[in-house]
Amino acid sequence: MEGNILVIISDQELLQRSVEPAHDLFPVMRRASVMSPLVVLLALGPGLLAFHSYRIDELSAWFGLQCLGKAELIGDSTNALISQPPLIRWMFTGLLSVIGHWSSSLVLFSYFSTALMLYVAYRLTRKVCNPRYALVFCFLLSFHPVVLKQVQLIEAPAFPILFALLTIWGFITHLRSESGIVSYKLLCGGISLGLCLLSGGALALAVLVMLGLYILNPAELPKSRSGSEQKKAPVFKQAVRIWKSFFILAFTGFAVGGWWELMASSQIEGFWGKWFAGPGQPNISLYWKTEFYPSYFVRDLISSMGFLLGFAVFGLFHGLKRVINPQGNMQEIAWLRLVVMWVLSGALFWWGVQFLPEMNTSTRAMWKLFFIIPMLAIVAWEFQQIALRRVSYPTVLAVFTVGVLAVIFISASHTDTLSPQISTHFLRQLITLGLSLVMVLWYSHRFKKEQGHRLVEIAMVISLSALHVIYGVYSVPKPNPAGERLLQFEHQLRLTQNVDHCLLVSKSEPPLELTFLIFYLWGDIDYKQIQGAVIPQDLAIPAETGTAIAAEKPDEEKPDAGKQVIVRWGASPVSLRNLVNAGFVLKPVAAPDVYKQHELQADLITNAPQGF
């Protein structure tokens, strides 16, 4: 018995050892690496909701007329888009020439840009973190209202964001896996930065600012995987290598995309101000425009995060604690540092553009998306911490409460204030939330502590995720009645081919959508626009020679002559009396309909006499 050692354990230590260890909330997520095919579904599926509900609107028509070189039709002879990055216009015009002119094809480029952005976001986070985190991040991002709404913007805000993510991927992977100052990964990042400059303009500068803040303290960055780097190099030498790589990245990006800015600035007066602040656009009334022109930054932030606001608030708090006191997995801490710097840069630029009233809607959506992506990265990280049971039970209750309370607050507040409207419905929702929390606390204490907490946390995380999906799906703008009528009108006009001349008659200024639709369907035709009660008698209308003779021939022998169409919006039949008196025959090609409170119809002009 002399060799035995007596171990004395206190009661407190016995209690700690008797406590059941916290288990992972979702063990199935450990196999997230085999769930990668779901990413394709997440990238393509949710965006279809916005893609199929899109209809031509004023913003699309404004951008489309600019791309077609018809700026004079919207009162802009200087071409407002000439000072903006040209890559999206080039891609948009080229895609339309390939797939043809259909209503849905206007946002096809934006839809695929969003899908690629989501896939690249997944690959980036999987590379720097783990498959589990990447899958959650892609899920949250694909159903976010800002991501779904911007699919309906034909200027594709996700396209420059795609190259911003590729730039970050190239630079981060170069620092992690290469010991030299340059590599093919860094050059790929530089090329992406140049394409970001050509498509997003000042967005490329924001990416450089964010990466510059990230490498301010090179000592805390993860070391290279190469053998030579494992020998602890001096901090100064490591800093010099990182900053050299950063300047090579910036120089490569400027070499790829900066040539256009230099060329345009030498030809356009006041180019740099228009390049950053935007050229301005007409006062377009969109039914979801207020989401991109918020009256208050804080209100729009709360509205954008929705049910995920609790994850974002506590995730930022916990992430900052890990960054300030780095302990544990340095790769995870390095990613948190990048995300925190990204949030600060994105918030600064997004807040700053609120003071630029001339910036167009799509550019504002791009800056908002640039801020939302790192916020969702924080949300996904906090989601993972909760699932791994690294967050206390009261904190999980607070995350749920803040998320639900934020949506109740936004739904009850006015559209232009931060104060909720005190109403019976608002108070009823608050009471329901309070009673729900009381029932949750009662349920969790009724059973064994570990079992009760686990079930409650699983229910809360799943419910918040489901509410986020519902919040995103219902935020997609539904087709308005005017858009549906214009779509039917387009389908009828499409049956009339070989149109060379079009006459648009209206009592007042016609809608941009109608003007754009004519060129969108029939190309660069001879177009005349008349405002007034009667068509002028001296109007030169080209006569269709040989129409009577051609009518007597069989269909296979008829000449393929150009046709003339007259479109009337809000113009009475009296306005056509000069045409009828001159012997013209009007054949309806579209059923009369009401569009924007005015009658809309189209006729084919035939049997035109000589000398009208």
TrEMBL record:
Signal sequence span is none
What keywords appear on the UniProt entry? Membrane, Transmembrane, Transmembrane helix
Which part of the chain is the Glycosyltransferase RgtA/B/C/D-like domain? 84-216
InterPro entries named in the record? RgtA/B/C-like (IPR038731)
Entry's transmembrane regions: 34-54, 99-121, 157-175, 187-216, 301-320, 332-353, 365-383, 395-414, 426-443, 455-474
- Asked if the record carries the keyword Transmembrane helix, the reply is yes
One Pfam family linked to the record: PMT_2
What's the protein called, per UniProt?
Glycosyltransferase RgtA/B/C/D-like domain-containing protein
What organism is listed for this UniProt entry?
Answer: Gimesia maris
